[in-house]
Amino acid sequence: MADDPADPHRAGSLAGRTILAVFAHPDDESLACGGTLARAADAGAKVVLLCATRGESGSISDPSLVPDGDLGRVRARELAEAAAVLGLAEVTILDHHDGDLRWANVPQLHEEIVLAIRRYRPDAVITFGNDGLYWHLDHIGIHERTFTAVLSLGADAPPLYYVTLAQGLMRAVVEAAHAKGGAPPDSSFWGIEPDAFGDAAEPPTFTIDVRDWASRKLAALRCHRTQMGPHNPFAWIDESDARRYLGTEQFRRAPIDTSGDAVLERLGEPVRERKQA
C-alpha cells in the first residue's frame, strides 16, 4: 500500500500545516520555489499564495496573447493555471502597481501582509531573500515588507523563510537550452543577464530536494505564456533538464525569534558550511 502524503505520522508530512508564500508578480512563485510549494501541497499542507501585483508592466512574448492590451488580466489567469499545476489551495492578488512595490503604498502593503498572516495563521511564510533573486526592486520591496510584517507580530510571528537561487544556475539552464539546438543565440530570461540570478545572495542554510516535482515546476512556469516564448530558455529545456537544474531549491530562515516549529526544514537538508582553505 502506498504511503498517504496526508498521513500525519508519515515522515515529512505537513498535514494540518499552512504555508503562506508572498511574492511580487505572477510567475515569481513558480520560478522561486514552485517545486517546494508543490512538494508541500503533496505532503498535506495548505499552500496559500499572496501576489502583490498583476504583473501588468511585464513583457509580452506574443501580442496575440493579450489582444485587448490588458496584460494584468491575462497574467492573473496564467497565475491561476500555474497555481492549479502546483496544487496551491488559494491565491490572492493584491491591487498594487507593478514596478512601484518598494516605494508606493508601503503602509498599505505592510498591513495587507499582516492581515494575511492573521487570517491564515501560517506555520511558515516564504518570500524573497534580500537580493530579490536578481536585484529586482519589486522583489526587494516584497522582501522588506514581508520581513517587517512578520517582525511586527512579535511572539505571534510565524517562521519566515527566504528563497534564493544558486549562482550559476540560470547560466546552466541557458546552456542546456542551447544544447537542444533550437534556442535562439540571444535567448535570455526577460533580457536579464543569467549571471545576475543568485549574484551575491546570502548562503542558504538548507535545501529542499524537489527533483520529483521539477516537471510540475517547469509546467507551472510554462503556464505563464506571456512571459515565455521562443527566447526564454524555459521554453526549450525538457523534463530531464528540469530535474537536473531545477531539482534543488534553497532557503534560509530569517533571524526572527519565533516559537514556531521548523516546518519547512522538515522537507530539507541542512547545508554544511564550507571550511576555508
Keywords:
277 residues; alpha/beta; 8 helices; 8 strands; 34% helix; globular
List the helices and strands and how they pair.
Blueprint lengths: L17 E6 L4 H15 L3 E8 L17 H16 L3 E7 L9 H15 L3 E5 L3 H4 L1 H15 L8 E5 L4 H11 L26 E4 L4 H10 L15 H7 L2 E6 L14 E3 L7
Parallel strand pairs: 1-2, 1-4, 2-3, 4-5
Antiparallel strand pairs: 5-7, 6-7, 6-8
Helix pairs in contact: 1-7, 2-7, 3-5, 7-8
Describe the structure in your own words.
The protein has 277 residues and is α/β, with parallel strands linked by helices. 34% of the residues lie in helices and 16% in strands. The protein has eight helices and eight strands, in the order βαβαβαβααβαβααββ. The protein has helices at residues 28-42, 71-86, 106-120, 132-135, 137-151, 169-179, 214-223, 239-245, and strands at residues 18-23, 46-53, 90-96, 124-128, 160-164, 206-209, 248-253, 268-270. The protein has an eight-stranded mixed beta sheet with strand order 3-2-1-4-5-7-6-8, with helices on both faces.
| Helix/strand/pairing category | alpha/beta
**β-strand amount:** 15-25%
Total number of β-strand segments? 8
Distance between the termini: 49 Å
Radius of gyration: 18 Å
Q: Main beta sheet: strand number and arrangement? A: 8 strands, mixed
Distinct helical segment count? 8
**What is the averaged pLDDT score?**
93
- Helical coverage, percent range: 25-40%
Strand order of the largest sheet: 3-2-1-4-5-7-6-8
Low-pLDDT stretches are 1-10
Strand/helix succession: EHEHEHEHHEHEHHEE
Q: What is the molecular shape?
A: globular
